[in-house]
Fold this protein.
Amino acid sequence: MKKILQIVLALSFCQLSIAQLFIPLEDIADDNIGWMKVVKYTQPAKPLNLAGRNYSAKQIRYCEQFIEWMQQSYVPKGCLGDVRIYVNTNPGASYSHKLKKGLPHLYGSYAKLYMFLKKDAKGKLVPQTGLADYWRIEANQLEYISNPVQFISTPDQYYFTMPYYHKNVKRDWSSYEQKANWLGFDKNSTLKNYMHFYQPKNAGAGLQYVVIMTKDNKLPFEPITIGEFFTKAEEHLPVWQKIESRSAELLATARKNLNRLKEKYKNQWNDVAEFRSSENITFYSFVNANEDMRDIFEKDAQTTGWPIYKISAATMAACKTDQPQWLTIRWDAGIQDKSYAAFKHESIMNNFNFDYLYNYFFYPDKVKGQSYKPLNSPLIKEAIVITEASLALKKATADKKVFFFDDFSTTATGKLPINWSSTVNQDGKKAVVTEASGDNIKWLELKGNAVSITNLKNTIPKDFEISFDIAVPQNFTWGAKRLSVELANANTKFAFELKPGFNGKAGFASFANNISGADRVNSNGYEVFGFSNNKVFNKVNTLLRKNGDDVSLFIDGILVAQYLKAIVNDIQFKSLKFIHIGSDSETEKYFISNVKIASFQ
């Protein structure tokens, strides 16, 4: 029995040790982790032959330069970077894979950015999983910025659509506006001379930002007509019947329906063929294309149409030369409420020298003799501006009972508070200090952010008072997310939540607790009178007192909730965090100020 217990304890310790190696994203959010290796190419590039395609030494050298330029422009923060060169993939044996032979001659490089990390046995940061974001620079990329129209494609001619968000999309794509404008991507001055857009899921590689460069700013893609589409579809019906082993009866039905569509669109034969974004043409698209079904070219006022394109033989041949026909710079949106993704996005937009890349390939005389330089150094840190401390802060600093105090008086407006960390919200922005109340009092604005104090060097006193002012703007949305105030250590969490009422009615408070041995929380919560959304600026003072095992919550000095046997077993906490998990409108935000932790004796 003793031996079994020793084994169980050993396994438990092993599991705990392994678990401790994994690092939460928020713990490394502001760490300049950098690259696995900063690459310096000192040997001449060599040509490459792969899957029947020949890549010249010059083309491979371009890929090396892409890597050098990426690493000069961006130092990964909150993630670990690796780099690779790549070319067209080797098509598989299936017919669908063989169609990839019709793709243009491609070569490029990527930065692979691992956001989920752990420490190895030597304490070195390494990828925890293979999950990663990518940043790519490519010559003649087509496959991953487009959707294939496989039904009419051949190994010699690739047909495709290129869906993306733009200002003229219809209702079916309008929900992507916020993502397309993330952190000013749509209006960024470094991108204004180039075609740039956001592609959501099911468009190209999906969930990515794309910049495309051509010499004349015109893509070398040719739209096809409705007539060409039907002609090619008619040719391919028996091909796909054979591939999919469909019956002769189904082929006859498909041909009958195709002939009906040809008759319907005979007066639009020379119009550009446009699909709906969700359209995926298959053999059964024609089998089922009876008069009662919405056909492949039918759209309404709410539906965006996407032209079908092809690439000419001349352009395909030109792609094999050492002159790229177009350049693509694209990067994954990533986890957009995490700091690493916002930093990556802003670094690429604001540091990478898009104009140099463009001129290097399309107007080389403009940069002759010039080495690549990023627009901004990726290592520049914003200077911290410290403003004068308020009398309240000076007084609190001198008070031995005060464990922590911040009224944000030493932080400049528009900046993240000194000694605080913040997640980014869905807009890619961190919490910042503002003078929202209009009376020179500084507040920390949380709009879908989580903030925590970074300079708590000791555990919070066993018996304590945590107090702060909390406010919301007028017309704060009823039903919007609560503000959670969380105390934690390595194993336990205790939190209370606040939310304003509406039209002068009482707000709401509740507790959350995972401490073993504590009494259960009141699932009905508590009314908080005086905290509503009807005033221009709705402010109350909040105080949480822990005395022994018991917790009391006061709003503007009035007791609103008592929770007996809440924090038991002499548990002490090491962190304090304010969490607003999401905001769906401009009025859905919280302001906090005069945050104080003091001992209660």
Notes: Residues 2-21 form the longest helix (20 residues). The two ends are 47 Å apart (CA to CA). Residues 105 and 319 are 6 Å apart (CA to CA).
